[in-house]
Amino acid sequence: MAKYKILSLGILSLVLGVLWRLEVEYHGWEALKWIGYFHYAVPVGFLLFIAWANLISELERKPRIALNLIGLVFGAVMIYLIQVSLTVSPL
Fold first, then answer.
1. Cβ 74 vs Cβ 43: under 8 Å
2. Which helix (H) or strand (E) holds 69?
3. Which of 11, 13, 16, 58 has the fewest other C-beta atoms within 10 Å?
4. 64-90 burial by CB neighbour count: b if 16+ within 10 A, else e?
């Protein structure tokens, strides 16, 4: 897997792009509706990226666990902020 880092990351990005597009098609494009709701393709993409990074990483176990925990906490905070920003109306 580590031999094909760039290729596998490109394939992952295409898969996530298709996932996002399917989600937008499901909810509809009318009047830019797609910019006003939380896209579940974002956390799925984040988790798949972490899985990809673990597959290609050559780190030892402890640093890998630490980076995963930091990434998951950061991702959870960002997802929360995205949800709040989409639900709070401007003054």
1. no
2. helix 61-87
3. 58
4. eeeeeeebeeebeeeeeeeeeeeeeee
**DSSP assignment of 8-61:** HHHHHHHHHHHHHHHHHHHH--GGGGGGSS--THHHHHHHHHHHHHHHH----H
Question: Is the full-model pTM beyond 0.90?
Answer: no
Query: Residues 6 or more apart from 28 whose CB is under 8 A from it?
Result: 34
Q: What is the structure's pLDDT at 84? A: 84
**Residue 35 CA, distance from chain mean position:** 16
DSSP code at position 3: G
What are the structure tokens assigned to 78, written together? 């960002």
